[in-house]
Amino acid sequence: MKDIFSDLYDRVLSFFTSQNDETKVVAKSRLRSVLMQDRVGFSERAMQMLKDDMLDSISKYLEIDIDSFDLSIDAKENTTVLNLSIPVIRPKTDEEIDEAIALAQNEKIKKTHKIAGELEELVKEKAQELAEAMTEEDAKDQQAEVLQEKNNSSEKNIKEDKEELQNENIKDKKQTKTKQA
Predict the structure, then answer these.
(1) Are 86 and 69 within 8 A, CB to CB?
(2) CB 84: neighbour CB atoms within 10 A?
(3) For helices 44-58 and 2-40, what crossing angle results, to 10°?
(4) CB proximity list for 83: less than 8 A, separation 6 or greater
(5) Which is more confidently placed, 172 or 60?
(6) What pTM does this model have?
């Protein structure tokens, strides 16, 4: 009976120990990968983009196990090494390749149209904003012109009133001189 419990204990302990070892290996591998990427100056985002591009390109020609696809960068002495592991299920037929390439081209065309549409909308928005700004500027210019005309008119009226007063003053002086004489 003691042997049964001892055996059970060992099996349970080995179950947890082996998982911890696997977890350690995975964590160590990830840490090594991150450190290598940092050491060679390759960001996680760039690494993912490279992986996606490679998957897109290779999967046109080969059926691959995407879940087992592995891409890593290592630095050895003075060189940087790109390690690539691609489990191939089977090569694709010419028809499948043609279909994959046509599909990829159609996706690029759709993306291009989408981007062009977004740019067109952006240009329309900016053009509308510019037109509104110009309209506001034109309105301000018109207001400034009206104010300037009013100011000129006021200055002209003041000048005319001043001349009229001077003329009246001159007449008054002449009349005063005539009365005195």
Answers:
(1) yes
(2) 13
(3) 100
(4) 70, 71, 72, 73, 74
(5) 60
(6) 0.45
Structure tokens at 81: 């090494």
Q: What pLDDT is attached to residue 63?
A: 93
Q: What is the residue whose two structure tokens read 């630095």?
A: 75
Query: Regarding predicted confidence, which is higher, 51 or 36?
Result: 51
Distance CA 137, CA 130 (A): 10
- What is the per-residue pLDDT across 56-113, written as a single tens digit (0 to 9) for each? 899 999 999 988 888 887 777 777 788 889 999 999 999 999 999 999 899 999 999 9
SS (H, E, C) the chain: CHHHHHHHHHHHHHHHHHHHHHHHHHHHHHHHHHHHHHHHCCCHHHHHHHHHHHHHHHCCCEEECHHHCEEEEEEECCEEEEEEECCEEEECCHHHHHHHHHHHHHHHHHHHHHHHHHHHHHHHHHHHHHHHHHHHHHHHHHHHHHHHHHHHHHHHHHHHHHHHHHHHHHHHHHHHHHHHC
Q: Which of 87, 6, 80, 78 lies closest to 38, judged by CA?
A: 80
Q: Looking at this protein, which amino acid is placed at residue 155?
A: E
Q: Is the pLDDT of residue 36 over 90?
A: no
